[in-house]
Design brief:
alpha+beta; 5-stranded antiparallel beta sheet; Glutamine Phosphoribosylpyrophosphate, subunit 1, domain 1; 5 helices; globular
Length: 241
């Protein structure tokens, strides 16, 4: 399984994904689930994936192939599409077609050929936008009322986002929020696992401002996890019934 989360804020966007994929208790692997497309100074797009690897990997390969095609057009390439809405439409259409093709070859197991994506990005002179794309290719968009999107095992990491994240949240606090959201998920679900991929896109920068992989032995993440557990225990003891 997986857990990916994206925050759309006034100051920028923050994306975080895990890398665990498992096909049974004895078959656990690590696969990258965050992919970035950039034309520095013109546009930046981050895509996070959850679901069938055959669907997501084929979808990303087709998007990359279309983006580097010498005959690419605004209708086929996410690096040429004139708006982020059209970027989402291209991605949704590509994933829907891929899901249908994979499902047609899987017969009785076709129901497992599904995937979902979070797409975050901005083009020059456009607004930052973030979409959750469903297996059928349709999508919803993050808004000021709901400034974050999640895919995969999202229920364990949602409470802290509901309580602390608003459009006014700073990028520093946003990184803290997504990391603690992931920590809660890691503690409650073994199908989500390290390492983690983090990306921060500042408003109007049109490039990935921070991109790093957080390994299982990362001291900063381990300290945050310990401090969060300690803070929760202290708060619990202080609440009167």
């Amino acid at each position: 399984m997986t857990y990916c989360v994206g925050l759309l804020l006034n100051d920028g966007m923050v994306c975080l994904s895990d890398t665990r994929t498992n096909a049974g208790l004895d078959n656990i692997s690590t696969y990258k689930k965050m992919f970035c497309f950039e034309k520095a100074g013109e546009r930046v797009i981050s895509i996070m994936t959850a679901g069938s690897l055959s669907v997501t990997q084929t979808t990303l390969a087709r998007l990359d192939e279309a983006a580097t095609d010498l005959e690419a057009t605004p209708e086929t390439s996410i690096l040429l599409a004139p708006t982020m809405l059209q970027v989402a439409e291209i991605i949704g259409r590509t994933m829907s077609d891929t899901s249908s093709e994979v499902a047609s070859r899987m017969g009785a197991k076709a129901s497992s050929a599904t995937a979902s994506l979070i797409v975050a990005g901005q083009r020059k002179e456009g607004e930052m936008r973030m979409f959750l794309i469903y297996p059928e290719g349709n999508f919803i968009e993050a808004t000021a009322d709901t400034p974050f999107l999640q895919i995969g095992e999202h229920k364990y990491g949602k409470p802290i986002l509901d309580r602390v994240v608003t459009p006014e949240t700073t990028l520093a606090d946003a990184k803290k929020a997504v990391l603690l959201s992931m920590d809660s998920t890691l503690r409650s679900n073994l199908s989500v696992g390290m390492p983690l991929d983090l990306a921060v896109i500042e408003k109007d920068a049109l490039t990935i401002g921070e991109s790093r992989r957080i390994e299982a032995d990362d001291e900063v993440f381990a300290r945050m996890s310990r401090d969060w557990s300690s803070a929760l225990r202290s708060a619990f003891q202080e609440i009167e019934t």
